[in-house]
Design goal:
single chain, 167 residues, alpha+beta, Nuclear Transport Factor 2, Chain: A, 3 helices, 4 strands, 31% helix
Length: 167
C-alpha cells in the first residue's frame, strides 16, 4: 500500500457552503413566488393565441399547434396561480403551535415543509421529542402553513432505546 501525501488531498467544502460563515437566520422561500411564473405562462399563452389568431389560416409556421400550446400554457399558469399560497406561518410559529398541541415540553424537534392536496397547500410536519435527557414521549404534528391550524397530531411514548447515547 502506498502512503497518501496530505498535499494531494484537495477535497474540501466550498466557502459558500461553509456553515460557520452563516450570519443570518435561514429564511424559507415563500410559495407566493409561484405567481411570477404563473403570470409569465399566462402572458406567453395569450401571446400564442393572439399570434395564431393574427396569422390566419394560410400561415405556414403558425398553426393549430401554437393555439394548443397557448391554451396549455394558460392552464398551467392558472394552476401555478392557485397554488401560490402565502406561507404566513413560518417554521418557528409551526414549532410553537406543535409544542402547544402535544401537551409536553418540547426538547429536540425538526420541521419539514410539505404540500398537500391538488392545490399544493403548504403544511409543516413537526417531529418533537419531550424535554428529558432520555425523551419519554414523541409526537408528530401537521400544521397548516397558511393559517397555523393543527391538521393532525400523533403522540406516543418514545419506543426508541437511547441508552447507548448517554454519557
Amino acid at each position: 500500500m502506498s502512503q497518501i501525501d496530505e498535499g494531494e488531498i484537495r477535497d474540501e467544502l466550498p466557502s459558500d457552503l461553509d456553515p460557520s460563515q452563516v450570519t443570518a437566520p435561514y429564511l424559507f422561500p415563500n410559495n407566493s413566488r409561484r405567481k411570477i411564473p404563473a403570470v409569465l405562462y399566462t402572458l406567453i399563452g395569450l401571446g400564442c393565441l393572439v399570434l395564431w389568431q393574427a396569422a390566419g389560416e394560410q400561415a405556414v409556421l403558425v398553426n393549430r399547434g401554437v393555439a394548443i400550446a397557448g391554451v396549455v400554457l394558460i392552464v398551467i399558469g392558472l394552476y401555478h396561480w392557485q397554488g401560490a399560497w402565502d406561507l404566513a406561518f413560518d417554521e418557528e410559529h409551526a414549532l410553537g403551535a406543535a409544542a402547544e398541541a402535544v401537551g409536553f415540553p418540547a426538547g429536540h424537534a425538526s420541521a419539514q415543509l410539505g404540500w398537500r392536496g391538488l392545490r399544493s397547500r403548504p403544511t409543516w410536519r413537526i417531529l418533537l421529542y419531550s424535554n428529558e435527557t432520555v425523551p419519554e414521549s414523541r409526537g408528530l404534528v401537521m400544521v397548516d402553513g397558511v393559517n397555523g391550524e393543527i391538521i393532525d397530531q400523533f403522540v406516543e411514548k418514545n419506543p426508541e432505546d437511547w441508552t447507548g447515547y448517554l454519557t
